[in-house]
Input
Amino acid sequence: MGVINVTPDSFSDGGQFQTVSSALRHAQSIAPYCDILDIGGESTRPGAQPVAPAEELDRVLPVIRALREHGITLPISIDTTKAQVAEMALKAGANIINDVSAGRFEPDIFRVARDYGASIVLMHMQGQPRTMQINPQYKDVVQEVKQFLQSAIEIAMACGVNKEAIAIDPGIGFGKTLEHNLLLLRHLSQLTSLGCPLLVGVSRKSFIGTLCDQPDPQQRVWGTTAACAVAIMHGAHILRVHDARAIYDVCKVVDAIQQV
Ligand code: HH2
Output
């Protein structure tokens, strides 16, 4: 899953793809290395301020339409927690909802997924982006994330979403310390028993910056590569990444080793 953030303030690529033409050029350059393109119009980085629905729609809809008009046929996911944004994005040509709140912020998003027959990614986050990194606490992070995802799957299904349409995500960096992130990656395979494809987003995240002493997110590709390889070995099916060209090769090599 290749990331295209149409935002001024995303933590690693904010402001880079804010015009339709720059987002389109970026999409065309990463498309050969992706199975899904993830379009986001609101940063969820720690401390980020919320964006109004109209502003988020103004950012993402022209990009989704442009991708379709220029013949990009890959599935498109819309990275949003807002039901209205999800619905308009699906109408404009998106296929998947990527909800980092797993329906906690706007439960109507499940109705949208059901009505449009869209797939939905349900991600774990402790708290809200604005405050989630202040003092995250768990007794057993892996079990608590697992229980949350189990109940999110049940809520989505109770709203009429098919289980086959659901992917789950432990939410690396969302209300988690360095140790929480490492424990989740180390014990990722415990989430596979929930019976849904597992999506993992480690790309350029601050835990990699801490481990590698690398303050510049764009210089974290090697650390990202290591975390992606481990994630695949431990059961990840989908990797959400900025450096699609590099991680494409990681996927090929690790998949080959796993399948021999
Ligand atoms: N991480 C980010 C955004 N969306 N979605 C899923 N499913 N999983 C993730 O780990 C995830 C996500 C944060 O990364 P990015 O979009 O690059 O930054 P920002 O939120 O600042 O736009």
User: Anything to note?
Assistant: Residues 3, 5, 7, 10-12, 40, 43-45, 79, 98, 100, 121, 123, 169, 171-172, 199, 201, 240 surround 6-hydroxymethylpterin-diphosphate (CB under 6 Å).
